[in-house]
């Protein structure tokens, strides 16, 4: 298992002051940017132009989570926009292996996401093509939803597959991650944690990043 990384999502931060919002979390490993197109999910956020502007001012690299249709065509723009990691949904990709290779060769980390009802088993042989696997722990589309415990067995199975193949793929969880739920995720084998409302509803977001990190490290040990 890799070292613990905390990746705050700006989804529930103040979109009128995004530059200031990312400056409040210098202790984070990445900033998670949720790109939504109102087709793959019933919500709309921003596109590559906005992400590029944010990449210029963010104190930490951007981790793009693309909840958009036609990932094959649309994902490469987020590498160009300056994201260090680009996650596409397998449900929206026609050729996930080709897309992962394209993202890597363009210079970013390639990551693939699974919605709660999408099984991991059909994708076992793809894992070596990925730098990170994202297992969603809510239905994608909105921040502030309740963590779905039903996703924990899939996290365990994904971690066991990675161990079996002896690969270093990071395992990210996203949705409802908080001080109450992060230990369960770390125990199951996750090592990269997205937390949106937990971080941005805290009085001191950077202190919350540190508290989440401490809990996950204790649970992993
Ligand atoms: O991908 C997402 C929603 O689709 C967000 O990253 C996620 O919901 C983060 O917010 P929270 O921690 O409040 O659940
Ligand atoms: Co997300």
TrEMBL record:
Pathway: Carbohydrate degradation. SUPFAM superfamilies: Ribulose-phoshate binding barrel. Catalyzes the reversible epimerization of D-ribulose 5-phosphate to D-xylulose 5-phosphate. It comes from Nocardioides faecalis. It catalyses: D-ribulose 5-phosphate = D-xylulose 5-phosphate. Binds 1 divalent metal cation per subunit. This is Ribulose-phosphate 3-epimerase. GO terms for molecular function: D-ribulose-phosphate 3-epimerase activity; metal ion binding. CDD domains: RPE (cd00429). InterPro entries: Aldolase_TIM, Ribul_P_3_epim, Ribul_P_3_epim-like, RibuloseP-bd_barrel. One of its GO terms (biological process) is pentose-phosphate shunt. The active site is at residues 34, 174. It is an enzyme of class 5 (isomerase). The keyword Kinase does not apply. It comes from the Bacteria. Keywords: Carbohydrate metabolism, Cobalt, Isomerase, Manganese, Metal-binding, Zinc. GO terms for cellular component: cytoplasm. Its cofactor is Mn(2+); Co(2+); Zn(2+); a divalent metal cation. Pfam families: Ribul_P_3_epim. HAMAP family: RPE. Its EC number is 5.1.3.1.
